[in-house]
Write a structure and sequence with these properties.
mainly alpha; single chain; 415 residues; 19 helices; 81% helix; Na+/H+ antiporter like fold
């Protein structure tokens, strides 16, 4: 495994540099590197490296969500609170419902099978969206209206909603329909419990840091360790039917530390930024390694057509969510394209229906179709969305005026 890690670090950095030289997001180079070296193309990765893929991707995702929490200020949330809340469920429900309705017209799936596919596809990729939004926040692009912060908060909630709705349809499909309404009711409970748990953990960590005053590096290691335990706790609670959005808890932990100790938060965020250089390579390369290009190819134009209908519905949902907001047309377009990328959730969840069908002794054909379209969504929307975010963001988002930035810095310094 050590050899594969060394190869992916060196080649990942090279791919990142090459794509940036071509004025494309570096993460695309890492994704394509993973596809090329993965088990479905050249198969040059060690088996041990691939076996550790799930854990490595989860740690990388935790690091990027922690960074998101440490960049999500209360002032920014106050600007976009209502829009972020509406965008957390309206676009995803539009997309998932459209795929559920139109799926049988494009693919050999029933409406229920199409619904499972729809809400796998409906989840935005935090792996693609979050680091790009953090980059814009650090450059103060669109900061006056809090646009990147809105996308950051909404995309994280969007994933929770999509995954829970998918699990409901999967339960109906496999015979567990008696708990449908309980699972739907669990969506707000999961979100509230995750945020409350994360805020509590953040407060307890602050007390710990104030008492023992560890160095910033040790604080960072403690925060990462606690976050991994939070995610594990979320898995255990989910197994016994208790809703808890662990990834939201991770973000809320960073938010609490930022709210109470801004300088400490920036120190930890800086350390996480350095770790992200390594974590991003592992995340995007390993997500790329999950992509079976031949499987995606099998769905052909029908799969592409269904995905296009879903993205169109999602885009309409974003525009509907932004009615009454202060965003101009170019900023609304940016919000639309920022909600396109799929990668992390689709790589993790695409094979779940297939495994459930195999365990239940059902026909595997629908599961194979769902997996193929999930893979196709990564192949198409991850590069398309990343390039669109970069291109539209540079033209649509205005940097914060220097006078406003100076005033914010003065307020921060006075705390």
């Amino acid at each position: 495994m050590a050899l594969s890690i060394a190869e992916m670090i060196l080649l990942g950095l090279l791919a990142d540099w090459v794509f940036r030289k071509m004025h494309l997001p570096g993460l695309l180079g890492m994704l394509f590197l993973g596809v090329l070296f993965g088990p479905y193309v050249l198969d040059l990765m060690e088996p041990g490296f691939l076996e550790a893929s799930l854990d490595l991707r989860m740690i990388a995702l935790i690091i990027i969500l922690l960074r998101a929490g440490f960049e999500l200020s209360r002032e920014a949330l106050h600007k976009v609170g209502l829009q972020a809340l509406v965008m957390s469920f309206v676009p995803g429900i539009f997309e998932g419902s459209t795929i559920a309705l139109l799926g049988p017209k494009f693919l050999p799936l029933t409406h229920l099978e199409s619904a499972m596919l729809g809400f796998i596809i409906a989840a935005v990729s935090p792996a693609v969206v979050v680091p790009m939004m953090i980059g814009l926040i650090k450059r103060r692009m669109g900061a006056k209206k809090g646009i990147p912060s809105m996308i950051l908060a909404a995309a994280s909630l969007d994933d929770v909603v999509a995954i829970v709705i998918f699990s409901v349809f999967l339960g109906v499909y496999t015979g567990g329909s008696e708990h449908v309404w309980i699972k739907f009711a669990g969506i707000p409970i999961s979100i509230v419990a995750g945020i409350a748990g994360g805020l509590l953990i953040g407060w307890l960590l602050l007390k710990l840091f104030e008492k023992f005053n560890p160095r910033a590096t040790k604080r960072t290691m403690i925060v990462i360790g606690i976050s991994i335990l939070l995610v594990r706790m979320g898995d255990l609670l989910d197994g016994v039917g208790i809703p808890f959005a662990a990834l939201l808890a991770v973000m809320a932990t960073g938010f609490m530390i930022l709210e109470k100790r801004e300088q400490m938060a920036h120190e930890i965020s800086s350390k996480l930024g350095k770790l992200w250089v390594f974590a991003s390579i592992m995340l995007f390369v390993l997500v790329g390694a999950q992509v079976d290009v031949s499987l995606a190819w099998e769905t052909g134009l029908a799969g592409i057509g269904l995905l296009a209908c879903g993205l169109l519905a999602r885009s309409c949902g974003v525009l509907l969510s932004l009615l009454g907001s202060s965003l101009n047309n170019r900023e609304r377009l940016f919000a639309v394209v920022a909600y396109w990328p799929k990668a992390t959730v689709q790589a993790a969840m695409g094979a779940v229906p297939l495994m459930a069908m195999r365990a239940g002794g059902m026909s595997l054909d629908p599961g194979n179709v769902i997996l193929a379209v999930s893979v196709l969504s990564i192949v198409i929307t991850a590069p398309l969305g990343a390039m669109a975010i970069k291109l539209v963001g540079e033209h649509a988002l205005q940097p914060e005026p220097e006078s406003d930035r100076s005033a914010i810095d003065a307020v921060a310094a006075s705390r």
